[in-house]
Amino acid sequence: MKSCWYVFWNVCLVFATFKTCSTLPESIETVYNSGPSEYRNIQAALKDLEDKLTAQFHFKVLELEEKYDKQMRKMKEAIVQHEIEIRRLKKVEELSKIEKEQAVKIQDDVEHLKLICNKWQTFFNESDSVSGQTDAVGSVIDHETPQRVRKDEQEQIYGDNRGKAKRLLLGTAAPTTESTVAFYVYLSHSETKIGPHHTLLFDYIETNVGNSYNKHTGAFIAPMRGVYLFSYTVFSERQGYGSFEIVVNSASRGSIFVENGGAQSVYTGSTGVAVLLLNQGDACTIRTHSTYASTGTIRSGKLMRTSFSGLIVGHMM
């Protein structure tokens, strides 16, 4: 009985083994056949994932670009606003500077006006005093000898007051007499490379009563018609020579000649004197001859002065 069961179990084992071996090729084939499909599914899933990631990446990039563009626009707008503010501040600074300069100028003008007002006040005070004295003198004259009061005397009194007012306003000194005219000027340095028709500009003014000599033009302008006495002296250095004229309105009215052919440090000079009748406004100058070619150096220093002087000796109507 036991042996029968043993045989039965062996037969069952063999049958099961055979059955398993017969179905194995079918399972392998199923797995083999199903493999490419799964691979394709995986590939498709990966492709979808890649597309999604790419789309998300591009979207993120666009989002960041838009964000940074907005920030850049804001920065540019801020820079423009800062530049506008800087220009405004510079304009304010310039206006402030101009206002300060104008304030200083206004202050100077105010001080000047105060000075003028003070001078006017002084003038009025002096005029009141002179007017009182004139009235007192006039009453005495009217009481004693009315014929002695003349209109020209009154005009002289008031004319003096007007002249005083003008001097107070302009800050000029009181004149001496109307006919006083005199000047003395000389060169403060030597002049080289002189040629024909060269006007000497006597730049140092020692005396200029009447302010008729102009050192910038070298001309004496006659303030009135009259007889004038002029003197001019010219020194020349070694190997120098030339002819010098006293000229009135471009017309020669006298001349001197200077020549120095001596040794080194030896100087010679010449002096000319002229008495001329000048009309008011005539210009008198000293110049080299208009055609003669002068040469050398005109000497003027502490030991000798090349000079020009003149004065009125007679007033003529």
UniProtKB/TrEMBL annotation:
Which InterPro entries does its entry note? C1q_dom, Cerebellin_Synaptic_Org, Tumour_necrosis_fac-like_dom
Originating organism: Mytilus edulis
Q: Which residues form a coiled coil?
A: 61-92
| Statement: the UniProt record of this protein carries the keyword Signal | yes
For this protein, the record's PANTHER family field holds:
C1Q DOMAIN-CONTAINING PROTEIN, CEREBELLIN-RELATED
Sorted alphabetically, the keyword list is: Coiled coil, Secreted, Signal
What SMART domains does this protein's entry cite? C1Q
Record-level GO cellular component terms: extracellular region
Which protein are we looking at?
A: C1QL
Signal peptide positions are 1-23
Check the record and name the Pfam families matching this protein: C1q (PF00386)
Query: Where does this protein reside within or beyond the cell?
Result: Secreted
**Residue span, C1q domain:** 176-317
Q: Key word Nuclease present in the record?
A: no
Where is it mostly found?
A: secreted
Q: Its domain of life? A: Eukaryota
